[in-house]
Amino acid sequence: MSVNVQKAALRKHLLEKRDATSAELRNISSKKIHLNLRQNTSFTNSQNIACYFPIGSEIDTSDIMLDILQQNKNLLLPKIINDNIEFYVVPNLEKLEKGSFEIMEPKDSCKKAAEINCVLIPTVGVSKAGIRLGYGKGYYDRFLSSTNAVKISLTYSKQIVKSIPSDSHDIKIDWIVTEDENIKIS
After folding, report:
1. Tell me: the pLDDT tens digits for 133-165?
2. Which of 39, 106, 134, 145 is buried most, with the most CB atoms less than 10 Å from its CB?
3. Alpha-carbon gap, residue 40 to 175, rounded angstroms
4. What's the predicted TM-score (pTM) here?
5. Would the pLDDT of 101 be above 90?
6. What is the 3-state secondary structure of the chain?
7. How far is CA 83 from CA 20, 123, 137, in A?
């Protein structure tokens, strides 16, 4: 079975599991993940932080985004440009509009990020070896291959799996932050 077929099956299973979690439990877990993220010095020592606007059953990053702004740090959010992810500085959440895939993204008036210290990455599944499973479009892997920023996967504990089939183009992450812990990838 090819790696892509294996990934697709695992992705389907993990998304069903995540989607089946009650909104109330996801909300509680998202708040705990935010608290744990605030204990992570790779995050707290960063000035230019790339985040993502949540969709579906993803970790709710609303409080994280507001926290970044309240600390006078640069909040960077993604926009799909020519099949690639690019990050833009968002001075406040009113500078967002519906974009690709109906996801909120920076308006054209936002300037492209010159520097990124830390990237918070949406995650379908992840292994403790640092292999992340995304949605399968490769946007983040292409972007992550071109940055030296600290890579932090935000995910629910139950989305951590023993192993994820990987390709040579899959980029390892540096940290996994769940509602229970901060995990440093060695």
Report:
1. 998 888 898 999 999 999 999 999 999 999 998
2. 106
3. 9
4. 0.94
5. no
6. CCHHHHHHHHHHHHHHHHHCCCHHHHHHHHHHHHHHHCCCHHHHCCCEEECCCCCCCCCCCHHHHHHHHHCCCEEEEEEEECCEEEEEECCCHHHEEECHHHCEEECCCCCECCCCCEEEEECCEEECCCCEECCCCCHHHHHHCCCCCEEEEECCHHHEECCCCCCCCCCCCCEEECCCCEEECC
7. 30, 19, 9
Token pair for residue 155? 């995910």
User: Locate tokens 């974009």: which residue?
Assistant: 99
DSSP β-ladder status, 118-122 and 132-133: unpaired
In this structure, are residues 116 and 76 in contact, taking their beta carbons and an 8 Å threshold? yes
Give the alpha-carbon dihedral of 40, 64, 124, 48, to 10 degrees: -70
Q: What whole-number distance in Å separates Cα of residue 108 and Cα of residue 89?
A: 11
Q: For residue 122, what are the β-bridge partners?
A: 154
